[in-house]
From TrEMBL:
Protein name (record): Nischarin
GO function term, MF aspect, one: phosphatidylinositol binding
UniProt keyword Repeat, yes or no: yes
Keyword flag Repeat: yes
Keywords, ordered alphabetically: Leucine-rich repeat, Repeat
Gene label: nisch
Amino acid sequence: TQAPVGPRVYVIEVSEGDHRWTVKHRYSDFHDLHEKLTSEKKVDRGLLPPKKMLGKNSKSLVERREKELELYLQTLLLQFPQATPTPLACFLHFHLYVSEQLLQAGEVFSLRPLQLYSVSQQLRLAKPTCCNGDAKTDLGHILDFTCRLRYLKMSGTRGPVGTSNIQESSLPFDLSVFKSLLQIEISECSAQQIRGLSSLRSSLATLSIHHSTEAMMSILVPESSEFSQWEAEGAESGCPVTAVIPLWKSLTTLDMSHNGIGTIDGSVKLIRKVEFLDLSHNQLSTVENLQHLYNLVHVDLSYNSLRVLEAAHTRLGNIKTLSLAGNQLDQLTGLTKLYSLVNLDLSHNQLAQLEEIRNIGSLPCLEKLHLSNNPMCIIPDYRTKVLTQFGDRAAELCLDGTATTEKELDTVEVLKAIQKAKEVKDRRSSGDKKVRSSSRRFTYIKVQINNISFILYIQCNVFKIRGN
């Protein structure tokens, strides 16, 4: 902190690498900063030197206050070595001069389409950077910022901006100025606005698009409108193509939920490394083309218009998590071979028959199953009847977020014994159709639960349980 300029105004010299600048603040600014840091970051309230009234203009007091405030700022920077808190970064004008700490902090930087449109238009004028320190005409810090930013969020609006006649949804913006983005989230922006997204194919790891498109192709292959025939890089094509489209080489997470997507189109051939795919809250009626995604682990297809899934394993491969909640499924025959599945959400569908559970009852890795808000849930003893379909694995299953209890397992054992006895009776009945006997026949099976033996007698489809 240098000598005051005017009454109680302090000039702070800030250095960040090779960059240096000055910031002017009054003591009240320090106080406001401290209030934010104590509430948001739990900074020691006694760290800021107190305001003193007597002799406030004396040279000795000013010099001591300078040293105290400088020590205060140095202490804060040492307290947060990895990521400078936003209030402190703004206080020191890091947001104006692009601090390395701010860029590497891992925080998401938010922009409006109108702001990026303005930057894009300004950069198109090709004005050189200048050395006079005028941030209004010097674009060097903006270029430096866009080249190093890693996390970006773009949020548009519907309708005019404020009281103006500017329609933000009609303003195109260029993402090609960002050279190091790892993650981007775009919402409330039409696909026609977004320019330069394809330039991020080599670096982007996470892509989220919401309320912005009706086709995956328009986002993943914006060049498709220019070429009648195209093929993904490295793919073998039996017919001539007019373009070879590069792959999204680093993309592992794709979230295109809350859009108007009706089809999983061929653009997914370009995202072969995707592990997490979220297409929830769209308008899908079929599941196609996902066989191209060999690395899929988690898939969310909830709240679409799916009525049936046929041979799901041929499209979904070895996924571990699958959400099909909020669809119109009434049968599960297509899920029988998803052998790697661990977590399955089937809530809010049209499943009415308990027999459908048999299609997933033999899945060896299934641990979590959600069936709430299906018609079958009103069946008496619904939980135990569902758990019975999993046989010896009933104890390993968590149904509707609740682990299986010992009491339920006891009931399951009884139901399994009854079911087995019925199967034995049915086999005997089918083999003895021509043999009639006037004597009574009993089929019984013995089951032991908690060291107590039960003998189940079956006669004329009437079951009797007697403790022994």
